[in-house]
Amino acid sequence: MPHDADHHDHDHDHGGQAPPSDMALRVKALESLLVEKGLVDPAALDAIIETYAHEVGPRNGARVVARAWSDPAYKARLLADATAAIAELGYGGRQGEHMVVVENTPEVHNLVVCTLCSCYPWPVLGLPPTWYKSAAYRSRAVIDPRGVLAEFGLSLGDAVEIQVWDSTAEIRYLVLPERPAGTEDLDEAALADLVGRDAMIGVAKVAAP
After folding, report:
1. Which tens digit of pLDDT belongs to each residue from 124-141?
2. Which residues pair with 112 in a beta bridge?
3. Is residue 27 situated within a structural domain?
4. Number of domains in the chain
5. Residue 62 falls inside a structural domain
6. In degrees rounded to 5, what are phi and psi of residue 100?
7. 70 annotated active-site
8. Which residue of 29, 60, 75, 77 has the fewest CB atoms within a 10 Å radius of its CB?
9. Is 134 a catalytic residue?
10. Mind listing the pLDDT tens digit for each residue in 153-181?
């Protein structure tokens, strides 16, 4: 449902605060120790990060969007039961459970935020961008979504309703962007190439080719 902080129940929330400032340093120290002891290959770590950032992530979500644009029956399944429909394409698992897809239209624009933490659907969007986890985005997206979108370069008319969806450990949202004009003759692969991560969070639109 749209933002309702009273019902935002995380199994790993941070009490409304950002994670400890030394958390990244602790992770790096642990990584260095594992590498030093020969338990982890640095190249393997890099490969995992690269995979989540560029392959496991936004490319998967882009394929979901492209299928929905191309196949009305799939789109109906996606909006009715996103977790199952996304699994049809082979994507799912940890951080991808209980997915909900919300559709952008000329009248309604959807924006996803996680106010108490940084819940994010890794299987379809990869690693969350730094700004998504920032306290400024998490608070201002709810208070002033139109202003936040403008800062991302997306200006919406006053007639467009903005709905803000609050991801939690239990429900993660994915935005189905509007299909841009002039793409009627493109196949699914070409359509997927147009779709970026930010459009699936809701801070951007998909540009026409």
Report:
1. 887 788 899 999 999 999
2. 165
3. no
4. 1
5. yes
6. -130, 130
7. no
8. 29
9. no
10. 999 999 999 999 999 878 999 999 999 99
